[in-house]
Prior knowledge:
By secondary structure, the chain is of the alpha+beta class.
Amino acid sequence: MAKKITLFLLSALLWIANTNAQLPADIFARLQTNQPGQGSVQIKQHQDITNMVNLHISLMHSLRGIKGYRVCIYYNSGQEARVRSDQERGKFISRYEDISSDKVFESPFWKVYVGNFRSKSEALKFLERIRVDYPNAFIRENITVEFPK
């Protein structure tokens, strides 16, 4: 029974992939584009594989991010929490300008999240890097993070 369900889902995804003409930029076409001074790449595979990968990319873009990890450097509630979160974020940006940061209100708390990490090990490395400046920082997992650039 599980095999039949899996086969059905796979064939449904292939059908959707074949009927969906407006997919984002094809990763395989981009890989095969010739760049001056670089080697060339030639990919030979079944068109269904290309369609499935492009469908997956399209679905991930519709989510506006992927599940990952961020480091929370500020977490508080109260009358001064909003102002303090702005201050903490400003301090962070001045020290680590290459790392993204966001101020978020998750009732009743104001929080400042930093970084966009795909793996917990990446987040742990960064947490250790900022531990001196933010001793109470912690990792938040299963949070939507931006796509890598």
